Give the backbone structure.
Amino acid sequence: MSDLPEDETNQTQGEKIVNTPKPSDPPAIEVTHLTRSFSGIQAVNNISFEISRGQVVGFVGANGAGKTTTMRILATLDYPNSGEVKVCGINVVDYPAEVRRKIGWMPDNYGTYQNMTVVEYLDFFARALGYQGQERINRIVEVMEFTDLASLADRLIDKLSKGMGQRLCLGRALLHDPEVLVLDEPAAGLDPKARVELKHLIRILAEDGKTVFISSHILSELDEMCDSLLFINEGKIIHHGSSENLRKKKSSTCLVEVQLKDPPEKLKEWASLAPGVTFRDSTKRGGRIEVEPAADEDIAQVLRRMISDGLSIIDFHQEERKLEDAFIEILGEIEESSTLGVS
Ligand code: ATP
């Protein structure tokens, strides 16, 4: 059994307790060679990753990739077959109760508590967490205000919309003011407005110094709110880094959209003769070309050549590479190397 790390110091700013990580603090999440299988199904296959304090990290993968399994182990709801998992330096297997104090877990549904009102539901969990008297009331009020549920305090849970229900579930995860939040698909099934509200709440939590580990299938959504992205595929981590790095890592070519004063066909004609340039498709006033290699100097050189060849350019801009494309390319490479027997 590993030792518990020494208690970390919190600083008081007025009424509010703010967690101020020190450089010597262990990472919020440390996963080392984690493996979990279920009767022959390898759900998580020897994965390792680390999340620093105060980071918002997106966990991305297809259905069945191993996200929920990893998150449930972090939340002390399941055990690894092998490997080690620590939350704020505390081993989840050796000290589950201590880990639960550090972690707020939001599962992908909030169970069957249909005959309770919002306030009864939060009160039930606040009691289970050991809050008493005025402190319990304060925690419930704070959480209801933060998640904008105060006006719905007496509403039955089965009368809540999906978005309200997700906010309630987030509120429950926040009751004990955890340092680390593990959120499994919190935006699934939400309409665009509810998604924006949820993103806003997550950014506030991050500004407050909390670490947020959040799963989703929707890359663009995570891209907007996360500091970095962790990709899992068939139980293995295939990329961990910022979305910027992912876009750059995979791009050997770049797409440039060009608008001309001349007829659009002129662009196609020009591209057919230009080295390192491939015409991709036409637009109303020009078209898109692919430039290879994608270094800034090569792109600038293409623009200079167009001008010296007499094209009348009114717009020339590089298109942002889609994260989905970069992700699919990584998957393609993995498939190719496994076909070739490279590991
Ligand atoms: P989704 O996005 O669909 O929720 P996920 O990435 O969260 O998928 P997991 O739920 O972790 O994936 O599942 C990973 C694999 O492990 C799947 O093949 C799943 O069927 C299997 N699995 C997960 N939990 C169990 C279990 N309790 N018993 C048997 N198989 C399981």
User: Anything to note?
Assistant: The first strand starts at residue 10 and ends at 13.
